[in-house]
């Protein structure tokens, strides 16, 4: 049997933290290995317990979820931990900053239990969880603030088709929607996505979306 996914739950509200832990522990393929109420404790526990992933709140005392995420999954971290951010606001600037800090996705706290479990399994598998319908809202709202001046598509080491796929990813399209838009197979789209991530040294689709906005590929 496959070992269960080991999850660390971090939220400063005890009721929410306990609720998440109860839902997660009820699944045969998931296991809560620790709980905490602030970002500093999350970093310390993650380094000590070595969980497969962390379910991370954003607004917490001592150290917020953004900084905790950066310390656990940010650039330069030798052994990054997968982080799923859970927040109250779907257009919260802090969520976007958490994605830039290295989080692999986000969910709303009022999401039903099934979505929470799906999110945990998705992130634990190495995929990104950034709902297509909110991608443009979430990233687009803050991209103009951090987009460098003078960025050109010509400077990016991608083929014209790969650039086209990257723009569609940034627009929030799923693989199936990209396949339909370009009249190619979903398998071909997966190949393009893989090439894009490899060429740009990006971890997942979340980073690809942020990259596209930072380079001015979408407006």
TrEMBL record:
UniProt-listed InterPro entries: CheY-like_superfamily (IPR011006), NreC/VraR/RcsB-like_REC (IPR058245), Sig_transdc_resp-reg_C-effctor (IPR016032), Sig_transdc_resp-reg_receiver (IPR001789), Tscrpt_reg_LuxR_C (IPR000792), WalR-like (IPR039420)
Give the residue spans that cross the bilayer.
none
Q: What protein name does the entry list?
A: Response regulator
Spell out the CDD domains in the cross-references: LuxR_C_like (cd06170), REC_NarL-like (cd17535)
List, alphabetically, the Gene3D superfamilies matched. 3.40.50.2300
Which keywords appear in this protein's UniProt record, sorted alphabetically? DNA-binding, Phosphoprotein, Transcription, Transcription regulation
Origin, by domain of life?
Answer: Bacteria
4-aspartylphosphate occurs at 57
The taxonomic lineage of its organism, from the top, reads: Bacteria, Bacillati, Actinomycetota, Actinomycetes, Streptosporangiales
Q: Where is the HTH luxR-type domain?
A: 151-216
Domain Response regulatory residue range list: 6-124
């Amino acid at each position: 049997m496959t070992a269960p996914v080991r999850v660390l739950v971090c939220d400063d509200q005890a009721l929410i933290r306990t609720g998440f832990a109860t839902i997660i522990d009820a699944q045969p393929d998931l296991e809560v290995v620790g709980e905490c109420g602030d970002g500093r404790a999350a970093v310390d526990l993650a380094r000590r317990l070595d969980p497969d992933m962390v379910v991370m709140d954003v607004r917490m005392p001592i150290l917020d979820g953004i900084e905790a995420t950066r310390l656990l999954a940010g650039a330069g971290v030798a052994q990054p931990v997968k982080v799923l951010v859970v927040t109250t606001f779907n257009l919260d600037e802090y969520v976007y900053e958490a994605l830039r800090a290295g989080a692999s996705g986000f969910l709303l706290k009022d999401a039903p239990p099934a979505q929470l479990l799906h999110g945990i399994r998705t992130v634990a598998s190495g995929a990104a969880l950034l709902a297509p319908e909110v991608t443009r809202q979430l990233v687009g709202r803050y991209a103009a603030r951090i987009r460098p001046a003078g960025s050109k598509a010509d400077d990016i080491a991608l083929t014209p088709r790969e650039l086209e796929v990257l723009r569609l990813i940034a627009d929030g399209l799923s693989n199936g929607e990209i396949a339909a838009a370009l009249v190619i197979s979903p398998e071909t789209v997966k190949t393009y996505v893989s090439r894009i991530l490899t060429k740009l040294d990006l971890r997942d689709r979340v980073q690809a979306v942020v990259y596209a906005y930072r380079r001015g590929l979408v407006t």
